[in-house]
Design goal:
This protein has 512 residues and is mostly beta strands. It has a domain of 230 residues: Jelly Rolls (Sandwich). It contains 3 helices and 31 strands. The protein is globular.
Length: 512
C-alpha cells in the first residue's frame, strides 16, 4: 500500500513553528553575542594593527615587495619608500640580494604587499612589568594619533647609551635574552643558496689543500694525519670586493636612484657580533673547530668527536680559557649534528643540536647565564671602527677539522643587529623641566619615572628615540605588547597572482 503523508495536528504545527522561531532567534542571539564579545575583546584584550613602515624589518615588514634572487634563489623583502597610494617607480630601481649581493631590477609589474598584520595585548603591562627587548606598540609622543611599533630598550630610571652597535644601560652592556637574540640574528651567508655567478664563499685556507672537496654541496673532507685543516669564509661588499661583514639591510633598497641619497660602502659599520652554524656528519675520532674573529680578538671552539681523547676547549687568541665546566659529551659519529657558535654582546655561546653544552658558571644548569664570559671584554668593542683600507681582516670565520672524515651539509653565517649612533636633527626640547640626551654615544638619555626608550630593529631606517625631539615614551602612551603576526601576505612564491589575497601560513609566528 502507498505511504500516506501524516497530517500534522494544529498542536504539532504550532510546536514546529515555535521551534523554527526559537532556532532563528538563537542564531541571531549567537551573532549578537559574538559581535559584543568581539567588540569587548578588541576594546579590552586584543587589538589588530597593520605595520605601516619598515622600521622593524626584516622581521616585521611595512609595505614591501618580496623578491627571489635570480642568482642564488634566496627570497627577500624590500621596503617601498614612497608616498601612500603612489605607484612603484617604473623600471628605475634595483635591489640587492642580502646573501650573494646580486642586483635585481625592480619594475612596476611587481605586486606590492601591505604591512604585516599583528595582534597586540592591550592591557598586558597593567599586569606584568615591561621587559627590555619586548616589541611594543605605543602612541607617538609628538602625535598621539599615530601608533608606533618598536623594541623597548630603556626602562624608568636608567641611563641609555648606544655604543659600538650595542646598547649600554647605566654604563654596562645590555645582553639580549634568547627570545630576543634569536629574532635579531640577520642572515649573511647560507650554502643552501649557492652563488652560481661567483662560486662558493667558503674555500680552503690553503689554496692547494686537496683534503677539501669544496666546489659543491655537500662539502667533503678527507684527513691526512691529525693536522687541523681549515675552510674559511670570504665575505664581499656591494662592489664585489672582499670585505668584512657590515650592517647591510637589503630591505632599505640601497641602490642609487634619482632623488635618493645612498649609504656608501665605507659609511657602513663593521659588525663584530657573529654566529656560525654548521650541519656536519663525522665518521671517526677527531676534532672540530669553529673559529670566530673580529678586530684583535679570535675565539676558537674545539669539540672532540667520539673516540678522541680530548675535551671541549675554548681559546681566546690561541690561549685556552680556564672554564669551570661540567663534563661535555663528545660529538656523535655517523649522525648529522648542528653546531652553533656565537660571540655576541661580549658573550660566547656554543650549542649542539640547539642545546647548550657548556656549564660555564658551574651552577649545574645549562641556561642563558652560561653564555657570559665576563673576564673577556675585548678592547676593540669599546672602540668601534668603520671599514679600514684592508677591511677583510676585520671579521674572520673558519671551520677546522682534523682526524676524521667529514661531510658538511650546510654552512650559515649570521650577524647581530647593529644599533647606529644617528642623532635627532633638532635640539632636545625640555619635558617637565629637563632636557634629555639622545641615547647615542657620549650623550646618555637618563629616563625618569614612567618613561621608556624605544629603538627599531632596522636601525639605519627607523624614526625612534634617537631621532625624536624628546626621546622618551611615557607609560600612558603604551598601547600594549605585540605578540603575534596573523596575516603575512602569501605572495607570488606560492603562485598567488595577487599578493593581498591569502596569508602565508608558514609565517604565522609569535613576535619575539
Amino acid at each position: 500500500m502507498p505511504n500516506k503523508k501524516k497530517e500534522l495536528t494544529d498542536e504539532e504545527r504550532r510546536k514546529r513553528e515555535q521551534a523554527n522561531r526559537d532556532s532563528f532567534l538563537e542564531t541571531i542571539e549567537a551573532f549578537v553575542v559574538a559581535f559584543v564579545l568581539a567588540f569587548v575583546f578588541r576594546a579590552y584584550v586584543v587589538e589588530a594593527f597593520v605595520i605601516p613602515t619598515g622600521s622593524m624589518a626584516p622581521r616585521l615588514n611595512g609595505e614591501h615587495l618580496e623578491l627571489e634572487c635570480r642568482n642564488c634563489g634566496y627570497w627577500y623583502n624590500v621596503g617601498l619608500d614612497r608616498q601612500q597610494g603612489a605607484p612603484p617607480a617604473p623600471g628605475a630601481v634595483q635591489t640587492i640580494c642580502p646573501l650573494c649581493f646580486s642586483r635585481k631590477a625592480r619594475g612596476d609589474t611587481f605586486e606590492p604587499f601591505s604591512g604585516d598584520r599583528i595582534l597586540v595585548l592591550k592591557y598586558f603591562y597593567d599586569f606584568f612589568p615591561p621587559q627590555r627587548w619586548d616589541v611594543f606598540v605605543f602612541k607617538y609622543p609628538h602625535d598621539p594619533k599615530q601608533n608606533y611599533i618598536k623594541r623597548l630598550i630603556g626602562l624608568p630610571g636608567e641611563a641609555v647609551e648606544v655604543r659600538g652597535g650595542d646598547v649600554y644601560i647605566n654604563g654596562t652592556i645590555a645582553r639580549k635574552p634568547d627570545r630576543a637574540q634569536d629574532a635579531l640574528w640577520m642572515p649573511v651567508a647560507d650554502t643552501d643558496y649557492w652563488d652560481r655567478k661567483d662560486g662558493p664563499r667558503w674555500r680552503p685556507q690553503s689554496g692547494d689543500d686537496g683534503r677539501w672537496q669544496w666546489s659543491s654541496m655537500p662539502l667533503k673532507f678527507t684527513p691526512e694525519g691529525d693536522r687541523m685543516s681549515y675552510i674559511a669564509y670570504h665575505h664581499v661588499d656591494l662592489r664585489g670586493l672582499e670585505a668584512s661583514i657590515s650592517d647591510f639591510y637589503a630591505y632599505d633598497d640601497p641602490v642609487e636612484k634619482p632623488g635618493r641619497q645612498v649609504v656608501r660602502q665605507d659609511d657602513r659599520n663593521t659588525v663584530a657580533d657573529l654566529r656560525l652554524l654548521v650541519d656536519v656528519e663525522l665518521s671517526g675520532p677527531g676534532l672540530v673547530e669553529l673559529a670566530i674573529g673580529a678586530y684583535d680578538d679570535d675565539f676558537q671552539f674545539l669539540l672532540p668527536v667520539e673516540g678522541a681523547r680530548r675535551r671541549l676547549e675554548i681559546r681566546h687568541n690561541g690561549k685556552a680559557i680556564d672554564l669551570p665546566q661540567a663534563p661535555v659529551d663528545p660529538l656523535p659519529r655517523g649522525k648529522k649534528v648542528l653546531l652553533e657558535a656565537a660571540n655576541v654582546d661580549h658573550k660566547l655561546m656554543l650549542k649542539v643540536n640547539g642545546e647548550r653544552i657548556m656549564d660555564l658558571n658551574a651552577d649545574g644548569r645549562l641556561d642563558e647565564s652560561d653564555r657570559s664570559l665576563d673576564d673577556i671584554s675585548p678592547r676593540s668593542y669599546s672602540d668601534p671602527k668603520r671599514f679600514s683600507g684592508q677591511p677583510y681582516e676585520e671579521t674572520r670565520l673558519k671551520l677546522g677539522i682534523s682526524g676524521t672524515e667529514a661531510t658538511i651539509h650546510r654552512l650559515r653565517v649570521s650577524r647581530d643587529i647593529y644599533y647606529t649612533n644617528d642623532k635627532r636633527e633638532t635640539p632636545g626640547k625640555p619635558l617637565a623641566g629637563r632636557t634629555f640626551g639622545t641615547g647615542t654615544e657620549k650623550d646618555q638619555c637618563i629616563l625618569g619615572q614612567d618613561q621608556f626608550f624605544a629603538l627599531g630593529d632596522n636601525s639605519p631606517n627607523s624614526a625612534d628615540s634617537r631621532r625624536w625631539d624628546n626621546p622618551v615614551v611615557p607609560r600612558e602612551n603604551i598601547a600594549g605588547k605585540a605578540f603575534f603576526v596573523y596575516w603575512p601576505a602569501a605572495g607570488l612564491r606560492y603562485g598567488v597572482p595577487v599578493a593581498r589575497v591569502l596569508p602565508d601560513v608558514t609565517k604565522f609566528r609569535l613576535i619575539r
